[in-house]
Design goal:
Length: 269
């Protein structure tokens, strides 16, 4: 009984101490926590199609995508992201895993630049066998990139430091050094809190000019909350390309560069 009494008294004293803690001290503690230089976020989304630079990689059959991102207040960032892909798109692979990172530097209030890398991995790839003119090729690709952002405009260029998604055919040469240049707009409309997105990009595949094409995209999306949970976003995009339909087809002959609408819903935690 004495032990219980002492415990009760001790609990009461501790509770009183915390209740009477100076407001300034509590505020400083909260501020210190909020000022952490580290930021970690995760995301997951459901899409009607996985479209990469205007090319469908899931044959408009839907995609589940998600990732994790780390950012430091100094400007360095690192992340990983994954999605399903149609097995007839890349060497019968069904999964894409991306690893990326880089550095962002604020040049002025509305002007920033960043440099980074992006590596695409397809772990289940069935590589071409001996006897083909692309023996042992892999779609795994690594790019270096640089971008400049002014307000809601971004100009970005990516250059591959490996063969571009397995293009290294005998007689034609390596596609290392292929480039993709894009211009993006992300603008908050003054109505209904909608975000307008627009994009145009140009792919130039080294030694394989027949694979070059331009893609376009325009869409709207909206940030919202569900039952008090924040971080939700949903939207619809329209995309199209001028890619050669005889070349941009999957293993079943389905044309991957045609125009399409893409709907999605995602959440960032």
């Amino acid at each position: 009984m004495k032990y219980l009494l002492k415990s009760s008294m001790l609990s009461a004293m501790l509770a009183a101490a915390f209740i009477t803690m100076p407001v300034a001290y509590a505020t400083e503690a909260a501020t210190a926590e909020a000022a952490s230089p580290h930021t970690l976020t995760t995301n997951i989304g459901f899409f009607t199609d996985y479209t990469y630079r205007g090319i469908s990689l899931t044959r408009e059959r839907g995609a589940i995508q998600g990732g994790v991102d780390y950012a430091h207040s100094s400007g360095f960032f690192l992340g990983a992201w994954a999605t399903n892909v149609e097995k007839n798109a890349f060497y019968e692979n069904t999964v894409e895993l991306d690893i990326y990172g880089g550095y962002v530097h604020q040049l002025a209030d509305d002007l920033s630049m960043n440099v980074g890398f992006l590596s695409y991995f397809y772990p289940d790839s069935n590589r071409p066998s001996a006897g083909t003119n692309n023996v042992g090729a892999t779609p795994n690709t690594t790019e270096l990139n640089a971008a400049v952002t002014y307000k809601y405009f971004t100009l970005k260029h990516s250059a591959s430091v490996t063969d571009y998604f397995g293009n290294d055919f005998a007689g034609s040469g390596s596609s290392r050094g292929s480039g993709y240049t894009e211009f993006n707009v992300n603008y908050k409309l003054p109505v209904a809190d909608l975000n307008l997105v627009a994009h145009v990009g140009r792919l130039a595949v080294r030694n394989y000019s027949e694979l070059n094409y331009t893609d376009w995209l325009v869409g709207v999306n909206k940030d919202f909350s569900i039952a008090g949970s924040k971080g939700w976003n949903a939207g619809v995009n329209y995309t199209t390309t001028n890619a050669d339909d005889n070349l941009y087809v999957d293993l079943k002959g389905w044309e991957t560069g045609n125009d399409r609408f893409i709907g999605y819903i995602k959440r960032t935690f």
